[in-house]
């Protein structure tokens, strides 16, 4: 009978090690003995010193007078020390400094033939990857900072003896998120951040799934990789290639011997390629890894970023095109990159500029960044600046000509209309083919008259356009003359990759018939939750506005509807909203209404009355309210730049404003992850529509969707495919594949009945359906509770969406169902609170995003929204007894005592591992016996109380009398007795006095040598270790004839120091 073998080592770790060795060039796997020699036995060291020294000598030969000279051994040692010299800096700062060292090398004074001067030494040969040395290490044991405890990442990849990549492997059934969390944890202070000082790539892999990131990346920014240059046919021979004898010994010799036969049998059958194989082959081939590290990683305001796959392949396609394809006049072929908004288009431009500068076939390259609006020019320049790339902004057409003609800057940014001013200044031309114009949002200007003007200044430049929306049919035909599409990354692809979020769309109708009856009907709906006084006040305000024109009434109705919608579903959360309106006059009117209502904080960002350069309609009549508003803002902020800065910074970083009213500004290129809802009262078509709706699709923690609330009908009914809608008729249908990108709100609501049924069916195994105690007992198992929480969260999210949708709420046939849903949410939320208190879980609301908590506040009565009480300290007898008394049954009291005692044991386990494990086992046994019905509820409560009492007031009757008065010595005695059980020499009662004396002496050693913060002081801990070693050798082994090996003594000392760090810090 044939069987398959599971487990992390077999299915993931060994498969990865095998592929790393069979790829070309391959990684040489080092044995643990070899690694120990390289690190001189120091577990805190992460450099392979002999390999590094040999490679530095090999890669760095100094040529002088036709002869080659090596760097001195002293300089080689200095270069190594610069990679590990401790500095009082955080990991990210150290990683940035170390990355600079790896990419730029370091300068060292070297004397050759009597002449001393600074010489450049390089750590990596970036141009010729084969000149480097590539090694892999499995289960690298790394000592934690300030501790002798260790961590063991599954695989570490070294380039020239320097850690370059870390891979964490998981079994098929394990959530990949645990591997991501593990690598993130390793990087924290007190863990093994020193391993990551030089690391460029981190991977979390399991057979069916893989994600990658770089050092410092939060979990939400770990990405999938989709290879575009190789297919499975390139990988298949590698995953099934045999290892040679030496490779096999290295692979299976260090603890994996029992896996060799089944692993080889699986390979001989022909192993099926999996996603882990594809990603490791794509990212860990030495030449690819070096390319990613050199050209595709950058620091953005101290945050390290690595290219997503679409950025990587777009830049490589561009480089290949511009370096290999020219027309008959020698002009490099350009083209257009279409990457949907939110996919990192600006960073792609930064990476391209960097790659152009590193390409040695391009000499004296100059880059001109072109946008069509001042705010986009500022945003793009700021992105380059944040990534450490110097950009000079052309202030005028004359300044642009000066920068270009005198080669004053490698990178210049400008607004496109400055070319018109430059052309008007004269007939200056730059005929260089080494000029690259990167045109942002190129669909607007590049293919029109402005493109002609740019060509007059740069007739032989290479033009590369970037756009966040697809090209129209007309733009495609024109773009083809300039090279056509280089690379495309659609919004649907981005949603599938989780690079951006899907959007939920609701077409909302408010007071369509603006007459007295229509307004009254609407008024009754929006005021049904108000007091009489509030309703009268609103009626007075509404009446005043209703006396104006019909359009004014519509504005008033929409403003109140937005205020109601936002207040009910978003206010008090950290999520913000934008409101796109038809004109500056409308923006000011809306602002005044929101201001008078006072329910939500709103601000306006518009251009000045005389400004026609920022996208607001130049034909729009400027009204007196707009002029008055503008004067007020300028007086308040002191100028337009400060007005824009303070309001946008507040929207990004502070609680207010909650709503940002805009006309055209900030509907393009304004990327704020907390921007979650876009209200629309404006006719939007084509690029403007696609740009606007993408403002709210940025990824952020706990953000599941962006929301579009459409008062203008710009997308019509989504039961008709978006691609056929007239507002987007200018695009090719294939370019508007948005199946995953935009979701009709009614499609979401349609999932609500099934989500409700799933929640109810979760409890079908509960016999007593009216007994809440039966439900709580049913949820005793943690896995069952977690599934309940997930089902409840999904139901709550969908109900929140339904209750925020006006036509669903106002449809009479939904009234009964809505009440049922709200009642069930109330009772299941109360059940959730009860079991979290009963089983004393840590307070963690990750299952409930802020919007769901808002739903509970708004629609569910206050008694359902109970706060899970904080964990109670079992040593605070009065508080603990009160918490127990709140439970109503013996079983629930026992569950609470057990869960809280287990929490205390977990927190204090390292203080006395033997004692606390014994109590933990007693509690586990009692729980098991009760669930098996072998203990009654009262018996269960009695046993759990006894266990808790042992933790609160330990008696230690089982330890020698001479140590009972010293809790530290008791813990050490327990550890020694447990560890030495079965050791040759003294046994039983004869060894207890020896161990008691040893415990007291070892504690006295710690007390004598400890200083402030000694647990972070390696020298003090080494002194303690030496004194303890001497005691074990001289007294325990030699005087009392206890047969202990050096390895056993090391283990005993490690255990004692671990207890001392926990108890005596």
Automatic annotation (TrEMBL):
Entry's EC annotation: 3.1.21.3
Q: Which molecular-function annotations from GO does this UniProt entry contain?
A: ATP binding; DNA binding; type I site-specific deoxyribonuclease activity
Any single GO BP term: DNA restriction-modification system
Superkingdom of the source species: Bacteria
Q: What does this protein do?
A: Subunit R is required for both nuclease and ATPase activities, but not for modification.
Q: Which family does it belong to?
A: Belongs to the HsdR family.
Protein name per Swiss-Prot or TrEMBL: Type I restriction enzyme endonuclease subunit
The organism named in the record is Rhodopseudomonas pentothenatexigens
């Amino acid at each position: 009978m044939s069987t398959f073998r599971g487990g992390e080592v077999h299915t993931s770790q060994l498969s990865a090690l095998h592929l790393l060795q069979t790829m070309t060039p391959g990684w040489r796997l080092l044995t643990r003995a070899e690694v120990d020699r390289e690190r001189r036995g120091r577990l805190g060291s992460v450099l392979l010193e002999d390999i590094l020294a040999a490679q530095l000598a090999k890669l760095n030969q100094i040529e002088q007078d036709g002869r080659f000279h090596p760097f001195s051994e002293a300089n080689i040692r200095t270069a190594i020390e610069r990679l590990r010299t401790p500095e009082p800096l955080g990991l990210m700062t150290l990683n940035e400094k170390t990355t600079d060292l790896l990419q730029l090398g370091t300068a060292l004074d070297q004397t050759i033939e009597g002449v001393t001067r600074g010489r450049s030494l390089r750590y990596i040969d970036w141009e010729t990857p084969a000149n480097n040395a590539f090694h892999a290490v499995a289960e690298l044991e790394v000592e934690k900072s300030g501790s002798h405890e260790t961590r063991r990442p599954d695989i570490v990849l070294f380039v020239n003896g320097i850690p370059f990549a870390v891979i964490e492997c998981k079994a098929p059934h394990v959530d990949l998120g645990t591997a991501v969390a593990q690598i993130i944890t390793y990087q924290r202070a007190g863990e093994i951040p020193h391993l990551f000082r030089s690391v460029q790539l981190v991977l979390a892999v399991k057979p069916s799934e893989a994600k990658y990131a770089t050092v410092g990346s939060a979990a939400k920014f770990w990405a999938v990789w989709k290879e575009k240059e190789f297919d499975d046919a390139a990988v298949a021979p590698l995953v099934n290639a045999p290892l040679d004898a030496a490779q096999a010994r290295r692979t299976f010799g260090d603890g994996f011997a029992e896996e060799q036969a089944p692993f080889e049998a699986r390979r001989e059958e022909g192993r099926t390629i999996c996603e882990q194989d594809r990603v490791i082959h794509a990212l860990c081939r030495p030449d690819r890894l070096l390319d990613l590290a050199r050209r595709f990683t950058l620091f953005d305001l101290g945050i390290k970023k690595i290219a997503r796959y679409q950025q990587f392949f777009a830049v490589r396609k561009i480089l290949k095109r511009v370096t290999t394809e020219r027309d008959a006049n020698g002009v490099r072929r350009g083209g257009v990159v279409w990457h949907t908004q939110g996919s990192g288009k600006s960073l792609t431009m930064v990476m391209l500029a960097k790659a152009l500068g590193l390409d040695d076939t391009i000499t004296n390259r100059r880059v001109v960044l072109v946008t069509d609006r001042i705010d986009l020019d500022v945003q793009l320049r700021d992105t380059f600046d944040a990534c450490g790339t110097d950009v000079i902004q052309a202030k005028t057409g004359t300044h642009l000509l000066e920068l270009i003609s005198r080669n004053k800057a490698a990178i210049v940014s400008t607004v496109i209309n400055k070319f018109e001013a430059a052309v008007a200044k004269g007939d200056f031309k730059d005929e260089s083919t080494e000029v690259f114009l990167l045109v942002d949002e190129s669909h607007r200007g590049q293919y029109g008259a402005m493109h002609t003007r740019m060509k007059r200044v740069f007739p032989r430049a290479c033009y590369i356009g970037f756009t966040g929306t697809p090209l129209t049919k007309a733009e495609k035909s024109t773009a083809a003359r300039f090279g056509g599409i280089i690379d495309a990354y659609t919004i649907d692809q981005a949603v599938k990759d989780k690079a951006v979020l899907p959007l939920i769309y609701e077409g909302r109708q408010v007071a369509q018939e603006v007459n007295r009856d229509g307004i009254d009907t609407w008024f009754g709906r929006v005021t049904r939750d108000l007091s009489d006084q509030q309703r009268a006040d609103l009626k007075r305000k509404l009446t005043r506005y209703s006396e104006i024109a019909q359009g004014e009434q519509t504005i008033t109705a929409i403003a109140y509807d937005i205020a109601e919608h936002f207040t009910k579903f978003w206010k008090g959360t950290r999520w913000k909203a934008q409101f796109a309106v038809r004109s500056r006059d409308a923006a000011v009117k809306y602002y005044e209404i929101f201001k008078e209502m006072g329910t939500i904080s709103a601000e306006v960002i518009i251009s000045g009355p005389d400004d026609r350069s920022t996208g607001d309609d130049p034909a729009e009549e400027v009204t007196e309210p707009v002029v008055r508003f503008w004067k007020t803002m300028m007086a308040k902020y002191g100028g337009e730049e400060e007005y824009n800065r303070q309001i946008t910074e507040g929207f990004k970083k502070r609680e207010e404003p909650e709503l940002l009213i805009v006309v055209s500004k900030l509907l393009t290129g304004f990327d704020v992850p907390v921007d979650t809802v876009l209200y629309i009262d404006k006719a939007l078509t084509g690029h403007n529509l696609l740009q606007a709706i993408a403002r709210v699709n940025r990824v952020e923690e706990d953000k599941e969707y962006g929301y579009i609330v459409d008062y203008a009908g710009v997308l019509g009914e989504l039961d008709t495919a978006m691609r056929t809608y007239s507002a987007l008729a200018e695009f090719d249908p294939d370019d508007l594949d948005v199946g995953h990108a935009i979701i009709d709100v009614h499609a979401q609501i349609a999932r609500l009945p099934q989500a409700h049924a799933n929640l109810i069916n979760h409890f079908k195994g509960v016999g007593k359906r009216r007994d809440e105690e039966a439900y709580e007992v049913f949820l005793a198992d943690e896995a069952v509770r977690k599934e309940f929480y997930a089902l409840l969260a999904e139901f709550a999210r969908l109900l929140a969406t339904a209750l925020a949708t006006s036509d669903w709420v106002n449809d009479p046939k939904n009234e009964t169902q809505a009440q049922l849903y709200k009642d069930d949410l109330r009772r299941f939320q109360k059940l959730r609170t009860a079991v979290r208190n009963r089983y004393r879980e840590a307070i963690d609301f990750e299952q409930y995003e802020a919007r769901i908590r808002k739903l509970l506040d708004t629609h569910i009565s206050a008694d359902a929204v109970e706060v899970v009480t904080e964990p109670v300290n079992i040593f605070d007898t009065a508080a603990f007894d009160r918490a127990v008394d709140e439970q109503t049954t013996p079983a629930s009291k026992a569950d609470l005592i057990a869960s809280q005692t287990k929490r205390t044991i977990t927190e204090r386990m390292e203080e006395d591992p033997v004692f606390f494990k014994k109590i933990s086992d007693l509690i586990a046994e009692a729980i098991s016996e009760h669930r098996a019905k072998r203990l009654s509820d009262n018996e269960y409560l009695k046993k759990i109380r006894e266990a808790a009492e042992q933790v609160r007031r330990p008696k230690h009757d089982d330890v020698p009398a001479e140590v009972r008065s010293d809790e530290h010595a008791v813990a050490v005695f327990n550890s020694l007795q447990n560890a030495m059980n079965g050791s040759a020499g003294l046994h039983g009662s004869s060894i207890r006095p020896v161990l008691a004396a040893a415990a007291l002496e070892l504690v006295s050693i710690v007390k004598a040598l400890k200083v402030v913060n000694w647990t972070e002081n390696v020298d003090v801990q080494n002194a303690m270790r030496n004194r303890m070693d001497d005691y074990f050798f001289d007294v325990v082994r030699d005087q009392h004839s206890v047969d202990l090996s050096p390895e056993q003594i090391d283990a005993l000392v490690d255990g004692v120091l671990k207890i001392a760090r926990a108890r005596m810090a």
